[in-house]
Amino acid sequence: MTKLLKISILCTIIILSVLSCASRQSPYDKKQLKVIQQSENFRDGEFVNIEKTRIMVDWGLFKAVWKRVFEGNDAEPDKKFILRRNKIKRVLNFDDKEFQVAWLGHSTVLIKIEGKYFMTDPVWGKRASPLTWAGPKRFFNMVTELDDLPKISGVIISHDHYDHLDEYTIRKLAKRNIPFYYVPLGVGKYLVKWGVPESKIKEFDWWDQVVIENRYKIISTPSKHFSGRALTKRNQTLWSSWVIKTDKYSIYFSGDGGYSKEFKLIGDKYGPFDIAMLESGAYDKLWPDTHLGPKNVLKAYKDLRGKVLMPIHWGLFQLGTHPWKEPAEKIIQYARENEVNLLLPKPGVVVDMRKTSNISYWWRMDQNKSKIAYSDKK
Ligand SMILES: [Zn+2]
Ligand SMILES: [Zn+2]
Questions:
Q1: What ligand has the least distance to the C-alpha of 282?
Q2: Of 91, 54, 40, whose CA–CA distance to 347 is shortest?
């Protein structure tokens, strides 16, 4: 790589890293501000975590950028995976079973629970970035077109970072008749701007909940993270993890967040969980408080009283400095040591949650074949 190219990549990454950690303007109007100011988690003009949180240790950003640009470490697959389109429909094919999940990549999960579909952090965009020409790019194409999705009853958003709240996707979803969007405080404003009617958006503070059709409970639970989509002020919108509960099943979705004592509290209150979907990538010792890392994934899973662990937030975008396969490989090792039921499905493959866990090893596939070799069997 030429010196000039390295410097230009370095500059891009610095800009993007700063952009991903801050926000340009207050994203809410006066009416919203009144609600937000009543939140216990909003202090001195910004949302705060329950525990003291370092977004980045000193000089962390610079070191991280340097490491990413100048030290090759298998941060990305050698070649982009290509999912063969003609196979996709056969892969994402829910049947009548009452509790199924399909991981579509990163934090996008399609959940079928007792007849209704919910979707978390839908991202169909090519990059997790404010720019179309730069920033973290997908390792594999989306496993299905938005138009081919089943009828969604609710979209759940964890926070406003680009890898979780994607303008392209929300604009597309806004044209579909999705009845509800569940979002943390302050995030609704973005959705309105992108075409979602205000009446469909429900904003939640931590521990707020809603019951749908006397059957489905959706609960916003705390996480230790931060928010923001542009320069200047950050933490103007809240970040959450989420619980979906029926009389028979319970699901935990972490969004993003470092280890905290809140996992135990959530586990005591709403556990045990039939599936705990925990953020497992984008960790680094330079930002130890805002992402879990493999060891803490297991710790949080234990606190939550999970029955099956599904690592999410890995394998699609390069957002940390670790090798891209490392989250899965390390968690497999720790899960074995701790006798944890681990679920690592291929992107888009539907898993019946009443069966046992499985590990697909899709990420170990021979890159020269340029595709993930799906079979029709689960
Ligand atoms: Zn985030
Ligand atoms: Zn994230």
A1: 2
A2: 91
